[in-house]
Amino acid sequence: MEKPARNSMFAVVAVLVLVAAAALLLFGGRGAPGDNSAEAGFARDMATHHAQAVDMSFTIRDKSQSREIRSLAFDIINTQANQRGMFLGWLQQWGLTQATDMRSMAWMSGHAHASAARPGDPMPGMASAEELAKLRELEGTEAEVLFLQLMIRHHEGGVEMAEGVLRLSGRDEVTGMARKIVTGQQGEIKLMTDMLRHRDAQPFPSILD
Asked: Which three-class secondary structure string do you get for the chain?
């Protein structure tokens, strides 16, 4: 792992948190969402969700020799680290903690697909500890294939969560970000599916039913 690169990325996220908070102070204009709101739940859960995507992308970037895989990993690292900074900035501006005792995905209960409708269920698309360990162990094309399979499923979960908050929130900053996530991750799902096909592999079964 390239520790300086990761440390630099975390420093960028910290700056983005401050920038997001300042922007919301200037342009917010509405009352802050509550601790139990869909907006707060989305920000907390999506920050965690994005953190895993960034970690997986660092893993494959540091072991793959494929230019297209490394480019994809770089794009995911930058996009999702930047978005994660925005989520944490929202929470700071709203006067809410980044961590909570509330169970993950409770904010989507009754408003999402079956895979994420029950409060306390794991966030959709998240890789397991065993899958992450396997990704770290594999090399070459096998590692690339597993990364693409895991990341496609991970993006599907991100799309599901973003579509969920679009049904529940009327805040411009939240719905605007959610639409960007849906569009961006759907585009990357198509790209990664094509990359798998070129490696004679297929995605895992879709969680978007």
From this structure: CCHHHHHHHHHHHHHHHHHHHHHHHHHCCCCCCCCCCHHHHHHHHHHHHHHHHHHHHHHHHCCCCCHHHHHHHHHHHHHHHHHHHHHHHHHHHCCCCCCCCCCCCHHHCCCCCHHHCCCCCCCCCCCCHHHHHHHHHCCHHHHHHHHHHHHHHHHHHHHHHHHHHHHHCCCHHHHHHHHHHHHHHHHHHHHHHHHHHHCCCCCCCCCCC
Q: Contact, 102 vs 41, CB < 8 A?
A: yes
Write the burial class of residue 35 (CB in 10 Å: 0-12 exposed, 13-18 middle, 19+ buried): middle
Residue-wise pLDDT for 115-141, tens only, equals 444 445 689 999 999 999 999 999 999
pLDDT at 108: 87
Q: Which pTM does this prediction carry?
A: 0.83
Phi, psi at 125, each rounded to 5°: 85, -5
